[in-house]
Amino acid sequence: MATGDPFFAVKEEVEQNIASAETLFQSWTRIYSTVSSRDNEELQRTEEEINSFVEVTKHRVQEIGLTLSDPPAQSRDNAKNQRQELFESRQIFSIDNYSSRSRIEEVELDNTRFIENEALQQTILVQEQDEQLDSLYGTARNIHAIATTMGTEIEDQNM
Predict the structure, then answer these.
(1) Quick one: which of 91, 107, 102, 98 has its CA closest to 28?
(2) Which residues form a coiled coil (predicted)?
């Protein structure tokens, strides 16, 4: 992983994904212009690859939009680490990934991604809860100190 600006790394990944989508679409256009029917197996497979690519990308963009509209409350370091983990766990979609998979493998891959995403979400939730519990512990400790001081002062005034 490059140590440069993450913006440029993500930008490069997006550009690669768009180039892959355009290549798939050019393949589909070429096949479509040479076949006599839309029932052609190669045309349908290429169409499925494009649709799958578009759906995965659309889902990811929606996730990003939702996160941006309602970001989780967390510390800067924690958020930076989670963004880093998410960035490193993402897979770049290429033509080779799609053209060599059967529909069952694609569904299994989608399920695996969903499970990984849910596990990441749960990890984030647990980390947020840990931070909240740490904050609650600090507050309880302060209240204990105040109560102890008040008790001491009351004893002093009683004497």
Answers:
(1) 98
(2) none
φ, ψ of residue 70 in degrees (nearest 5): -145, 75
Contact assessment for residue 15 and residue 70, using Cβ atoms and an 8 Å cutoff: no
> pTM of this prediction?
0.41
Q: CA 47, CA 3: separation in Å to the nearest integer?
A: 37
Distance between alpha carbon 71 and the CA centroid of its chain, in Å? 13
What are the distances in angstroms from CA 30 to CA 25, 48, 88, 100? 9, 15, 35, 19
**Comparing C-alpha atoms, which of 93, 82, 90 is closest to residue 127?**
82
Orientation of helix 103-158 relative to helix 41-69, angle to 10°:
10
Show pLDDT as tens, one digit a residue, over the chain (159 residues): 445 777 777 778 788 888 888 888 888 888 888 888 888 888 888 888 888 888 887 888 788 778 777 776 655 566 666 666 665 555 444 444 444 457 787 778 888 888 888 888 888 888 888 888 888 888 888 899 899 999 999 998 988
